[in-house]
Amino acid sequence: MNWNDAILIFIIFISTVWYVIQPMMNPPISNPFDDDNIDAHTRQKMILMDQIKELEMDYEIGTLNKDDFIQQRNQLKRDISTLLQKIKSQTS
To answer: Half-sphere exposure of 45 toward its Cβ, with a 13 Å CA cutoff?
Structure first.
């Protein structure tokens, strides 16, 4: 084994170690649902809005008929309105 092989092995070793250790040095990615500044009502509102998006997608691909879509969407909108009123009363 000559010096070129030893240098190549050392570079591969250091690269591998850096690849393994580097993610531990980065700060973790924050999850918007884990944020302490967002209260339970706001989290619930975000979940309901996601459910409306999923409902619209189901309707667009044809797995949901129009009557069920309208009924479920209106119920989710009422739930969001209730939550918005609760959020507004908390801030007042």
So the answer is: 14
The sign of the dihedral angle between the CA atoms of 21, 24, 25, 31 is positive
Tokens for 54, please give them.
Answer: 């999923």
Asked if 41 and 47 count as a contact pair (C-beta separation under 8 A), the reply is no
Look up residue 87 and give its two tokens: 């959020």
Ordered by start, the domain boundaries in the chain are 3-91
Q: What is the model's pTM? A: 0.56
Q: What is the C-alpha separation between 79 and 27, in angstroms, rounded?
A: 36
Residue 1 has pLDDT above 90, yes or no: no
Expressed in angstroms, the distance from the first to the final Cα of the chain is: 76
Structure tokens at 53: 């998006």
Taking every pair of Cα atoms in the chain, the longest distance, rounded to a whole number of angstroms, is 77
The confidence score (pLDDT) of residue 39 equals 72
